[in-house]
Task: inverse folding
């Protein structure tokens, strides 16, 4: 048996390693617990405030009454329950799902491409979603499936199909070079985006829907039924859970693809799966929010600067932070110019940009993957 290496203070190297690992796990648990509490607080805040203010205490009592585990005497108006359960809570939970999805996708794409400017729409996903939405509006159908109209459904399919095409175009000799992937994504995004614009110009009926189209482009949480939340939540939670095991791969890719291969990682296979999961997260978010920018860029940046580059913490922390960020942004979009509602994409850009610059200036730490 190999002898333990004794340090100067008399503590074995093995014990020191265990203590360090325990401290890291405790830090991870404490960090994620704090972020979960912040998310819960943002949900309560967003659900309580709006055109009609509802006491946070009443919100808790309403939820408990729904569980039938306990019954509180109703001191609120019946309209408050309708507003909370049928309008406000689905929208708030939708914002949580969209924010978590976009932030998680941003982590995956930035880690995979080793590029701080990568976001969920850099690989042509936005162009595919825009073209899909344009085609749906040109059909003018009122058909829906599981509560989703044709616009989000076509946008979802357009994003997934475009990502598949980009991936196939960028493969060279069984490999997928990062630079080729970026170039193919940029080219497809531009081509499909301008194709959608051409359809708008050539179709006279589409001219009447420009307001609807651009409101979708600027983003906004659109949830009308609880089954929408259920389907999107299932897709997003499953994708995030499936993405977590790839945290080790993303940490290794920070050293370069050759180094990752020497560590025993199937680089090409993992790249394909990471891209698929990032695309699924983005497409699921697009289906209920339109194109909401900046979340997948700002949140992973901010979390990485504060907590470091370890993707084992970065991925869940970004998901929680992204949910909180978009919930607060959606609250501001509803209340800043009430009764006029600002598209949430404008709020994320106006709030996220200055916040990121402030965070970058305050930390004064070298950015690294």
Result:
């Amino acid at each position: 048996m190999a002898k333990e290496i004794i340090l100067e203070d008399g503590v074995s190297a093995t014990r020191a390693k265990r203590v360090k690992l325990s401290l890291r796990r405790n830090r991870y648990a404490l960090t994620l617990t704090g972020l979960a509490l912040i998310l819960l607080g943002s949900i309560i805040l967003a659900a309580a405030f709006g055109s009609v203010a509802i006491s946070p205490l009443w919100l808790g009592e309403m939820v408990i009454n729904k569980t039938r585990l306990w019954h509180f005497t109703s001191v609120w108006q019946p309209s408050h329950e309708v507003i909370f359960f049928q309008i406000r809570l689905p929208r708030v939970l939708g914002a949580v799902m969209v924010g978590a999805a976009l932030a998680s996708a941003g982590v995956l794409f930035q880690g995979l491409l080793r590029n701080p400017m990568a976001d969920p729409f850099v690989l042509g996903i936005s162009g595919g979603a825009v073209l899909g939405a344009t085609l749906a509006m040109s059909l003018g159908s009122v058909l829906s499936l599981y509560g989703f109209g044709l616009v989000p459904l076509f946008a979802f399919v357009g994003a997934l199909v475009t990502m598949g095409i980009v991936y196939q175009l960028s493969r060279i000799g069984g490999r997928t070079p990062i630079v080729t992937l970026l170039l193919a994504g940029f080219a497809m995004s531009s081509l499909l985006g301008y194709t959608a614009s051409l359809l708008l110009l050539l179709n006279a009926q589409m001219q009447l829907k420009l307001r609807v189209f651009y409101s979708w482009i600027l983003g906004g949480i659109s949830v009308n039924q609880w089954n929408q939340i259920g389907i999107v939540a299932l897709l997003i939670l499953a994708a995030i859970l499936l993405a977590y095991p790839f945290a080790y791969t993303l940490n290794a890719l920070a050293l370069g693809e050759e180094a990752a291969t020497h560590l025993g990682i199937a680089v090409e296979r993992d790249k394909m799966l990471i891209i698929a999961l990032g695309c699924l997260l983005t497409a699921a978010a697009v289906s209920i929010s339109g194109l909401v920018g900046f979340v997948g860029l700002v949140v992973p940046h901010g979390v990485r600067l504060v907590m470091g580059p370890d993707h084992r913490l970065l991925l869940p922390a970004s998901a929680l932070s992204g949910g909180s960020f978009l919930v607060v942004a959606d609250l501001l979009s509803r209340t800043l110019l009430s009764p006029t509602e600002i598209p949430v994409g404008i709020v994320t850009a106006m709030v996220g940009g200055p916040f990121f610059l402030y965070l970058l200036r305050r930390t004064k730490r070298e950015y690294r993957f």
User: Anything to note?
Assistant: The first helix runs from residue 13 to 48. The chain is about 75% helix and 0% strand. The two ends are 38 Å apart (CA to CA).
